[in-house]
Amino acid sequence: MIVPTGTPDVLLRTEGRAGFITLNRPRAINALTHAMVLAVDGALTEWEHDPAVTTVVIEGAGERGLCAGGDIRAIHDDARAGGSASAAFWRDEYRLNARISRYPKPYVALMDGIVMGGGVGVSAHGSVRVVTERSRVAMPETGIGFVPDVGGTHLLGRAPGELGTHLALTGAPVGAADAILTGLADAFVPSAELPVLARDLADLPAEEALARHAVAPPAGVLAEQREWIDACYSAPTVEEIVERLFDTGVPAAKETAETLLARSPAALKATLATLRRSRALAGLEEVLDLEYRVSCAALATPDLVEGIRAQVVDKDRAPRWNPATLAEVSEADVARYFAVPEGGDLGLAAAVSETADAAGAADAAGAADAAGAADAAGTAEAAGTADAAGTADAAGTADAAGTAEAADRRARGGA
């Protein structure tokens, strides 16, 4: 048995060819703290440069889930105090999300049980995402007056049709089949098989290990609901989405409309705007930059504190939203979510661009060096050829002169 290292809340160990990250706050369903984010990032740094580690696996301690999200009690307290700790947490968390998406080694997320909010951020951007029959995957932010973050609008914005809009606005959890359908996961493995899968990941390439255990998931529900979801959520505003849902005559659509009316009106409108903007952006880093602005703006709204109070602190499940209705949320209210934060933008997209430019410059320099070496070699070859030709010419001239002289001598001798 290899003794785990790391911190009390993030256990690290290596077994065979794999590095394992275990989120270890089971009583809080492994909710992420800032220290945990930094610990995971540190492990990825170490293992990226360790040739003995060829696969990274992230899992959650306990039976309830991989990760229920960020520590929203801490965010609640920070927002009430007007602090900056949440913005600092998001800066490092979103950088970690981007890093996971570009990690050069297989990053396997065992998305068993509850996987929500920040839990999606540390799993669904990975290269191998495994769900089970116990998985409940969601971005439930509108229920606490917040907006999907950690790259959630990037993932949901690319789901088939308007399925992602439905999940972003309602915050509804999905099971294994629907997580795979919407692009939040890749493969289904029965939960009883996870310990064996983990052992195989220590010995085999990730795709080979997964192939031994992946099977077809139980049927989902979204594929059958796709027709009314696409028809309703393609509306230009949240108000019209709700109206269409009520008018379909489909009981599930009517229930969905009632769910939306219980969510934060401001968060609903900000979420729809963020999701649609994210679809036009090139990649995850650009979306995370956008989400960082939105998250920082949400921190200053009354609904975030009120939503967490109602759902987590007092648990009365009766939030008093402000504004109270969709009609009261103005275009100016929504626009404020996209303002540059007081502490400045996240800057992930710019950093990626600078890295790409530096790599391009290095490649160009290498190509120039190679071309220079080739030119030098060519010059040397040409000089060698010229020298050889000169030598041959000189030899030929000498031979010709020698032949002429011999003939002259013979002619004189015969005279």
UniProtKB/TrEMBL annotation:
Ranges where the record places region Disordered: 380-415
- Taking every annotated instance into account, which residue ranges of this chain make up the domain Enoyl-CoA hydratase/isomerase? 19-338
Recorded hits in Gene3D superfamilies, A to Z, give: 2-enoyl-CoA Hydratase, Chain A, domain 1
Q: Where is the composition biased (Low complexity)?
A: 380-405
Comp. bias intervals (Basic and acidic residues): 406-415
Q: Which organism is it from?
A: Streptomyces tanashiensis
**EC number assigned by the record:** 3.1.2.4
Q: What class of enzyme is it?
A: hydrolase
PANTHER family hit by this protein: 3-HYDROXYISOBUTYRYL-COA HYDROLASE, MITOCHONDRIAL, 3-HYDROXYISOBUTYRYL-COA HYDROLASE-RELATED
Q: Report if keyword Hydrolase is assigned.
A: yes
The name on file for this protein is 3-hydroxyisobutyryl-CoA hydrolase
Reaction equation(s) it catalyzes: 3-hydroxy-2-methylpropanoyl-CoA + H2O = 3-hydroxy-2-methylpropanoate + CoA + H(+)
**Keywords carried by this UniProt record:** Hydrolase
